[in-house]
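Lecture notes, part 5. Sequence design as translation. It can be helpful to think of inverse folding as translation between two languages: the language of shapes and the language of residues. The source text, in structure tokens, appears below.
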């Protein structure tokens, strides 16, 4: 292991955080541009940070720097991560084009009494996001239905949207095909099914309590819900992927099976022509291009920073302030939350924090399943409550499309699940496995 320690080597990461957060705040709250915080493209800022790292390193020639970056990209975890991103994109594209999300929603809502409609929304969002692995796609699919339930029952729009966002973050955190899960598992070096099991028991109390709260705070509605039609066959790919994931089937195999089923259902039901299958798959795969390229650039940046001693310096900085497993876990949690605040992207936060978290975990003998779970949980917690995060912006956009204007800040008080997930994880840290090293 490279024992070089140089805190100044973290400058490129500092430049990224400063530029991304600074311009994001400027665009969102000062200039109030249409794109707001998302007008600052992460990949552009990452390339700027990478340039800083290349210029800052004066110990190596340019060719040697390229070699260092290549070794970082060639890491097994990075290659596996990128491949899974692309396969997961193919499945999402196929199932979306087949209309699986809409049919799943209508199927579940058909059997829900109005009193538990909001709690049902939470459960539906949990199911879809767990199967699809995307909180944004889940919110995009359910936001309009949440508004519809609000219209039909008189329930608060913020309450309904909060239930959807909470359920979406449940699956984003747990799903074996979620990019956050992939990133957490690959950076920590554990199996997906093992991380899923540990992660599930940590967040289960939060999910159950959220469901109870949503049922309690929801008044009885005076009208029946108006639900659209559903096709049970379009739900099958979701069920297959979910059950396969829970059984621990290889993620590549289960995604390929789910994709083939989704394509078959889509063609058979007339959702799209068989001649459009390549376009359908391409649409899903291309949606993963950004995060795939960002993962490669982050790997290059991380390799240079680590070679210059930045990672070791940061680990030493954290190590000097913690002396127990409990402190190490709190440090990992705070680290990934801080990066997520700056990037507004929980996957990027995990990719950036993962190598540091792994070093800390090895130093303090923390189970990789545990560190992977904490990374994913606290990244999801912060991402789920960020007013300028994609999840809340999707919820606001869905309401606007249905003719209702609501701010993302108005939804935050109803985000029961993310806040309870944080409390549940903190209790897990404080009361289990916190012996001194």
């Amino acid at each position: 292991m490279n024992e070089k320690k140089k805190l100044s080597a973290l400058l490129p990461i500092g430049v990224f955080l400063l530029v991304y957060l600074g311009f994001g705040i400027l665009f969102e709250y000062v200039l109030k541009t249409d794109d707001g915080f998302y007008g600052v493209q992460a990949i552009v800022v990452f390339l700027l940070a990478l340039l800083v790292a290349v210029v800052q390193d004066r110990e190596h020639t340019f060719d040697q720097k390229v070699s260092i970056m290549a070794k970082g990209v060639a890491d097994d975890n990075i290659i596996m991560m990128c491949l899974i991103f692309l396969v997961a994109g193919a499945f999402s594209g196929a199932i979306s084009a087949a209309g699986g999300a809409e049919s799943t929603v209508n199927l579940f809502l058909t059997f829900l009494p109005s009193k538990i409609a909001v709690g049902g929304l939470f459960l539906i969002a949990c199911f879809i996001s767990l199967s699809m692995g995307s909180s944004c796609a889940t919110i995009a699919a359910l936001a309009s239905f949440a508004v519809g339930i609000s219209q039909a029952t008189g329930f608060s729009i913020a309450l309904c949207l909060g239930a959807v966002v909470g359920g979406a973050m449940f699956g984003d955190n747990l799903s074996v095909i979620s990019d956050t899960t992939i990133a957490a598992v690959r950076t920590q070096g554990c199996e997906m099914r093992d991380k899923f099991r540990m992660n599930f028991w940590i967040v289960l109390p939060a999910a159950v309590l959220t469901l109870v709260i949503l049922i309690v705070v929801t008044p009885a509605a005076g009208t029946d819900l108006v639900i659209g039609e559903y096709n049970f066959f379009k739900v099958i790919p979701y069920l297959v992927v979910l059950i396969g994931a829970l059984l621990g089937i290889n993620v590549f195999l289960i995604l390929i099976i789910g994709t083939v089923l989704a394509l078959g259902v889509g063609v058979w039901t007339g959702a799209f022509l068989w001649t459009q299958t390549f376009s359908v798959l391409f649409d899903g795969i291309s949606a993963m291009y950004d995060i795939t390229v960002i993962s490669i650039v982050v790997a290059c940046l991380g390799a240079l920073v680590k070679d210059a001693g930045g990672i070791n310096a940061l680990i030493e900085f954290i190590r000097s302030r913690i002396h127990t497993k409990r402190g190490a876990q709190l440090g990992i949690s705070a680290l990934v939350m801080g990066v997520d605040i700056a990037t507004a992207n929980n996957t990027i936060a995990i990719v950036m924090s993962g190598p540091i978290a792994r070093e800390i975990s090895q130093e303090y003998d923390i189970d990789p399943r545990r560190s992977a779970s904490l990374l994913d949980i606290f990244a999801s917690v912060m991402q789920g409550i960020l007013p300028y995060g994609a999840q809340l912006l999707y919820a606001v956009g869905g309401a606007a499309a249905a003719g209702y204007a609501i701010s993302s800040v108005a939804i935050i008080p109803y985000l029961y699940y993310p806040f309870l997930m944080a409390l549940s994880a903190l209790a897990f840290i404080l009361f289990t496995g916190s012996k001194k090293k």
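The translated text above is only one of many valid answers, since several sequences can fold into similar shapes. The chain has one domain: 7-431.
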